[in-house]
Design brief:
One of its GO terms (molecular function) is cysteine-type peptidase activity. The chain is of the alpha+beta class. The protein contains 9 helices and 9 strands. The strands form 2 sheets. Strands 1, 2, 4, 5, 6, 7 and 8 form a 7-stranded mixed beta sheet that branches. It has a two-stranded antiparallel sheet with strand order 3-9. The chain is globular. Bound molecules: 2-acetamido-2-deoxy-beta-D-glucopyranose (NAG). 2-acetamido-2-deoxy-beta-D-glucopyranose binds next to loops.
């Protein structure tokens, strides 16, 4: 009896192995098929059209790699934030960075001369702040495939201080900066610096509205007529003392602040929600705007950051980034090159 029993067991095990192998191959095939279907559905959803079948096949491979990266990231329950399939899922991280960022890290000393910090002695620092709720933040915008994040960041900070001084929230023109501002490092879709943009706005006596000079997403010729009707003015700009999240806190408690960050990683590309905690370095390549701060339900302190990649990215276009980390530069270097425009109180 015993040998027969063993034989039976062997047969069962062998059948199981064969079955398992077949089902693995089958599920792999299903996976490939469904990935193709998912890519088709994704293309329809995002209105993506490729020039030929070869390009489509290449994009499918990138899409598949990205989806697998996103899914395996999310399966790791230890991660405090989630990734998601978004409009950038058919782009490699290199392509994405090349087309979307555009902060030209300030290599020279930042704005020379006496460094004053308006909020040095600020004592009114509430435990949470959300400038959206105070009506100082315009809806999320989308820079498209133009590396002018610096313009979106400077405009969002200018829209903020303009609302705080005049009581009116006016959407302002990034395209005016892209077309007309050649100050310092500023080179339209090829990149720029928020400080140089502020300097341009001071010197050109203001910035016109988004409605008057709408966003095109490509470099253009400066339209002097449109430029001649400014809707918001600033009188100067200041840098937040570098590498101090507590200084940044004092500034963001008082107005939306332009910040430069290292947004180069795939996790940033596909961030979909939660408090982002890295990985990221401090190789500043992207300009965004800190529009608040707070503490999440699980007690994690965060910066509330407005991005310019449309509402399909992150938390309806925003990201919460971990605040008060061990490194003085802040997460992704957020405390390294923060700055804000100043305006005359009216
Ligand atoms: C902060 O307080 C010090 C000491 O009173 C003063 O010298 C400095 O000018 C103040 N800074 C600002 C920006 O008001």
């Amino acid at each position: 009896m015993a040998p027969l029993f063993l034989d039976c067991k062997f047969v069962v095990v062998a059948a199981l192995i064969v079955g398992l192998y077949a089902s693995q191959a089958w599920s792999r095939e299903l996976h490939e098929l469904s990935m193709q279907e998912r890519h088709e559905q994704w293309m329809a959803r995002h209105g993506r059209v490729y020039e030929d079948d070869a390009e489509k096949a290449r994009r499918l491979t990138v899409f598949k790699n990205n989806v697998e990266f996103i899914e395996s990231f999310n399966e790791d329950g230890a991660k405090p934030y989630k990734l998601g399939v978004n409009g950038f899922t058919d782009m490699t991280n290199e392509e994405f960075m090349a087309s979307r960022n555009g902060y030209r890290k300030s290599s020279s000393a930042r704005s020379s001369g006496a460094k004053s910090f308006l909020y040095e002695n600020a004592t009114a620092v509430p435990s949470t702040m959300d400038w959206r709720q105070k009506g100082a933040v315009t809806p999320i915008k989308d820079q498209g495939q133009c590396g002018c994040c610096w313009a979106f960041s400077a405009v969002a900070a200018t829209e903020g201080i303009n609302q705080l001084t005049t009581g009116k929230l006016v959407s302002l023109s990034e395209q005016e900066l892209v077309d007309c501002d050649t100050k310092g490092e500023d080179q339209g879709c090829e990149g720029g610096l928020m400080d140089d943009a502020f300097e341009f706005i001071v010197n050109s006596h203001g910035l016109t509205t988004e409605a008057n000079y709408p966003y095109e997403g490509v470099d253009g010729t400066c339209n002097a007529r449109k430029e001649a009707s400014p809707a918001a003015k600033i009188i100067g700009h200041e840098d937040v003392p570098a590498n101090s999240e507590s200084a940044l806190l004092k500034a963001v408690a008082n107005q939306p602040v332009s910040v430069a960050i290292d947004a180069g990683g795939s996790a940033f590309q596909f961030y979909s929600g939660g408090v982002f905690a890295g990985d990221c370095g401090t190789d500043l390549d992207h300009g965004v705007t800190a529009v608040g701060y707070g503490t999440s339900d699980d007690g994690t302190k965060y910066w509330l950051v407005k991005n310019s990649w449309g509402t399909g990215w992150g938390e309806n276009g925003y990201i919460r980034m971990k605040r008060d980390i061990d490194a003085e530069e802040g997460l992704c270097g957020i405390a390294m090159q923060a700055s804000y425009p100043t305006a005359q109180m009216v």
